[in-house]
Design goal:
The complex is a heterodimer. Chain A has 14 helices and 17 strands. The model of chain A has no long low-confidence stretch (mean pLDDT 91). Chain B contains 16 helices and no strands. The longest helix of chain B is centred in the N-terminal third of the chain and has 23 residues. The N and C termini of chain B lie far apart (56 Å). The chains are: A alpha/beta, B mainly alpha. At the A-B interface, helix 9, strand 15, strand 16, helix 10 and helix 13 of A face helix 1 and helix 2 of B. Bound molecules: iron/sulfur cluster (2 copies). One iron/sulfur cluster binds next to helix 13 and helix 14 of chain A.
Amino acid sequence: MAGPVVRGPVGRLLERWGLNGGGFAHGVHPPPHKELTAHLPTRRLPFPDEVVLPIRQHAGKPARPIVERGDRVERGDLVAESQGFVSSPIHASAAGTVADVDFWPHPDGSWEQAIRIRVDRFSTQLPRPRLVPRWETLDPSELVDAIRRAGVVGLGGAAFPTHVKLSPPPEYPIDTVLVNGSECEPYLTTDHRTMVEFPERVHLGLRVMMRALGVERGVIGVELNKPDAIEALRRSAPTDLDVSVVGLTVKYPQGAEKMLIRSLLGREVPGGSLPMHVGTLVQNVSSVATIAEVFETGLPLVERIVTVTGRGVRSPANLIVPVGTKLRDLLEHCGGLTPDAREIVFGGPMMGGSVAHLDAPLLKGTTGVVVLTEADVRVPESYPCIRCGRCLDACPLFLNPQLLANLARSGRWDEMEDAHLADCMLCGCCAYVCPSNIPLAQLFRLSKDAVRRKRTVAA
Amino acid sequence: MASDRSERSLLVTTPPHLGSGDTTPRIMWTVVASLMPVVAASVWFFGPSALLVVTASVLGAVITEAGFVGRVRLRGGSGVITGILLGLTLPAGIPLWMAFLGGAVSIGLGKLIFGGLGQNIFNPALVGRAFLQAAFPVAVTTWPETGGPWWALRGDNFALPFLSPDPAHTVTAATPLGLMKFEGEGTPLVDLALGTTGGSLGETAGLLILLGGAYLAWRGYLNWRIPVGILATVAVLAGVLHAVDPGRYPGALFTLFSGGLLLGAVYMATDMVTAPVTNLGAWVFAVGIGVLVVVIRMWGGLPEGVMYAILFMNAFVPVLNRATQPRPFGARTVEAPS
Ligand code: SF4
Ligand code: SF4
């Protein structure tokens, strides 16, 4: 679907309407700030003294701890098992002794049950000898099960369990697997480095996914501001599979599922539907590489690439870190905070959450740690809505944030639902452009909560 | 170092953590700045009187706003815009107390009783202007002559409240629209575009208004669809009428550049608060204003119709907003999987 891309002012005009090289209409162009880390090869973070594994690191039901204080664990051992289908197991990300299973600060600001492992400093950190599943010989359901047991979830932020995505109901046949390499959030370069340094893994992971789903076609979408990634992926593309690498216009939120599907396939996911309803499935590029790792090393998801960046941190870096590394240890490794550091964001600055507790651990879904300075943070002042209409021109889903905000302020949830609140993906484009600095996305998040709670009370 | 000291000074805010950098006060003050050339031109044409009148109406607006809302809103600058725009609709010779009162009424009646910035339905400057027109019909339509010494006051600016201005001070000139309507006499287009005609302060500098509007549109501070829609509608309708009966109806360019049309189309109809939020709504709104302007000017009893046209369409904005909701992404066509 993605056609040629026109540059210059004409291109920008076309792009507003989603007509430039495929793509979607509306959206915003926040300053990318990727130059801080885009060129830095990934390094391995030395094992910290302690890792903390909250039982809630994925969408769905939290995992259930199966270890107790004093237990000895090796790297890769199961420490919490999944509860039900939409859930995911959690594995020890370092060898050591379980120090505690108790409440601990969670990056979302709450306290959550977590398994704290005191890392054995003399361990080689080699995993127990294990069988590496051979994808060539496994049938689709065994592949999905191997992925499930490895605790693979989406690494792009939402941390949706991957095995659930790979098990669509038979009435919705999938024809194309899409890999999201757009990384449209400012600052982050996790996916970028993955594509540049491990393109074979991306292709292997995609191959496994296509096999698991019985799909013939795979498309990898990468924003055009990462030519080296496109180049690396094209060079290592397999010849025996229908896999293409497509450059995408640089615009936020290019990586949102609905936008990516529109850009790559020209299909619009109807309101209230999922990608599988239009015959496709989107997986973030880092998660795809993780799937490959499971079949390369047999090791479950215990480490990931994290971008530590922003002008508030002394030496930004792309690091391979054990899941559960505490923010404090990570920042210390990166030279610490600058004196003007004001806000630490887990994930990208458009959708990520602020973290103020330095003991909070990195989760499976933490794409990056962005430290914003005094100069970067938004002004804390709001003004009345001046009905400028910019939010309407920014919303990639063509909602009316101005109307929704008015309704939200007076608690008119029913009318909000009629105004398609459920479709809002909390991308934050509306709040980004609002000159009156109205916390639109936050209002919608709270309204969604209110609607959900009202439903459960009614039921 | 990631010390506990820094931990205590960390902010927790809600996403998105970045903003586009444009703020409402910046928009408002940029609009004020873009009006400065127009004000300067009015001083050039009408002398110190022009500055006095604009200052009086700005003071009336700002003092009223400050008195009711406090200083915070003042930083928003929207009261200043209202004051300047109102001032620009007035003749240079109007007594200052009337201009001041108009500014106060603009804010009080036009804005505050609706609940302040962002809540009002009608353009506040036009509400003030409509009030003055109703209360002092003679004073607001007494147009001073251009020419004469620059520094001379163009009328009895310092008349005391509730005393009629001394007619000895007033020299009345006809506006191009009035000439056209009542005498059937045209005015050269060059004079209209450059502003060397009689009329209210801001009616006279068409090119500067267009320039200011173009700048604001380029910055994204006004919805270009509105002035383009209004002016195109007026031009087409006037052109057609002129072609049918050139003796009775003036041509398109005369209609565009005469009276308060440019000021209204570029600066008043585009007031974000009182214009539709949707782009489709903006087009309908603009065409509506254009049609009304032509109807009032050509067939109504008044030479000028911009004020009533905009106020009339303002009243329909809530309806327009509701009727032109954007169609959500998912509601569009779905291509079946191939
Ligand atoms: S947060 Fe919701 S309403 Fe705002 S731009 Fe994104 S999808 Fe639209
Ligand atoms: S962008 Fe903000 S000020 Fe403008 S209409 Fe939307 S909510 Fe109102």
